[in-house]
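Example record for the data management plan.
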Amino acid sequence: MRGKEMQTGAVIVAAGMSSRIHSFKPMLKIGSITMIQRIIQTFEQAGVDPIVLITGNNAEVLEKHVAKKNVICLRNENYQHTEMFDSAKIGLNYLADKCDRILFTPTDIPLFTKDTVVKLMNSEAKLASPVFRGRKGHPLLIHTSLLSDILEYNGNQGLKGAICEVGYERELVEVEDRGILFDADKEEDYEELLEYHNKQILHPQIEIKLVKEKDFFGEREAMLLKLIHYTNSVKYACQQLNISYSKGWTMINLMEEQVGFSVVDRQPGGINGGYTTLTEEGRQLVEKYIRFEEEAKLAVQKIFEKNFFK
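Corresponding structural encoding:
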């Protein structure tokens, strides 16, 4: 859906049982937002797209919790009997043909910064980890050209073992960000997370909307069209965006009403079933919005730094 620039997606694994801490980790609060919201927000601020969230334990609760975020929710239905790497494979496989590189992180390491993500994205590495004072952390950057070997791996040590098996040298990207190391595996870890969070700086967050007679197009609408492009199905696009089928069509109908052209091409079902694709005008609408949003956020960041960090 985007131009020739390197596109980076993300996989966040949140399917586990949280067995070592007596709470559902993705929804533990870090300040005023939850761990999962913090990770999604950080990726969004860095321009990561698409973002895939793998759910399992308490899937419906978590999916409802992030319903207003522009993330693709995929479930590991067998989460009770599989390892984190099995959940990671679901997301990595899904994104294999949708972007050039993928950032991977579990949900219990929520405090890495946007600057760390951007620094990883600006590297030319095919495999990279951020490093703070000699210690590797998350997120991990993986080029999609390495995925076939990683996804075929069935040995010990999960993703770590798969990376060793691939044999590709990992680049270590130095960052001044202790957040890459902080996890919430135990109660005392969570307390340390809170203390660290309270020392973090503020940041701007904006939402870009297109408005005509009505407010009709923003990040959520752009994500819906991108998912239709990926799946050739409004039904599956709505499922992955965690909205109802009727809501999806309401959004599409409003777009078309406001722009005056069809954004999707509906092919009725037959022996092979129906499908829906983006029209050329719909594809261009998404691409123009993405470029506009990226430029607007860069401009806002510069204005923010000028006014708050003179």
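Summary line stored alongside the record: The chain has eleven helices and 14 strands.
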